[in-house]
Amino acid sequence: MSGPQCCSNPPLLNPNAGAGHVEKLAGLDSYVAGSSNSNLTVILISDVFGYEAPNLRKIADKVAAAGYYVVVPDFFFGDPYNPENADRPLPVWLKDHGTDKGFEAAKSTVEALKSKGVSAIGAAGFCWGAKVVVELAKSRLIQADVLLHPSFVSVDDIKGFDIPTAILGAEIDKMSPPELVKQFEQVLTAKPGVDSFVKIFPKVSHGWTVRYKNEDPIAVKAAEEAHQDLLNWFAKHLK
After folding, report:
1. How far, in Å, CA of 207 to CA of 189, rounded?
2. Is the pTM of this model over 0.90?
3. How far is CA 4 from the centre of its chain?
């Protein structure tokens, strides 16, 4: 389930990336952007490389510019996956950082935001983060969600919730191959009264929305299209 594809193109982490800043929320370091006076919040949940990835923070800034308060928590407690650490391959790292632990931490983040008076919360998850978003959706802790090239998400997961859901998949993806994404779509479209949007992007690979290379114009264009789809979804369903 956790093959090399989920870790290709690792980002060069930068704790100072982005126009926002880092503060504590629910005991977690979190990158925040946008106006804290906004009562609409979007939580972005990272892939295994964590919240210091510059492209992820760039997405956060883009969402904040659309009028949302954006929170990107460090659900790995300062210990993102490091592909150069041969002593700790991904399956070993995942034992310390399972999506179940991410979900428990995310619940605290949601509670902290609600205590600040936030009226609606959306969440978007990338790879590993998509599974955490699914658990938030099942628990009805969020009002809308976007899953970007999800990892560890099953058809039963998709059956388990009924909030407006967008799924952005890649044509080249062993974690969520197009056949599986199409099954997700069948489940979603069969739900009465639940709005959904499913799109498979051609010629891109798992992780493309957040681990694109800035010098590759085709990759950038595909990533930006996905970011716009994310923004459109929240504009429609987070009010």
Report:
1. 25
2. yes
3. 19
Distances (CA, A) of 235 to 6, 66, 201: 29, 9, 21
Edge-to-edge strands of the sheet including 40-45?
21-25, 28-33, 69-73, 40-45, 120-126, 144-148, 165-172, 196-205
CA 59 to chain CA centroid, nearest Å: 10
Tokens 């954006």 locate to 70
Q: Rg for the chain (alpha carbons), in Å?
A: 16
> How is residue 36 written in tokens?
């804290």
Binned average pLDDT, 10 residues per bin, the chain of 239 residues? 67 95 97 95 98 98 98 98 94 97 98 95 98 98 98 97 97 96 98 95 95 91 98 97
DSSP letter string, 143-198: SEEEEES-SS--HHHHHT--S-EEEEEEEE-SSS-HHHHHHHHHHHHTSTT--EEE
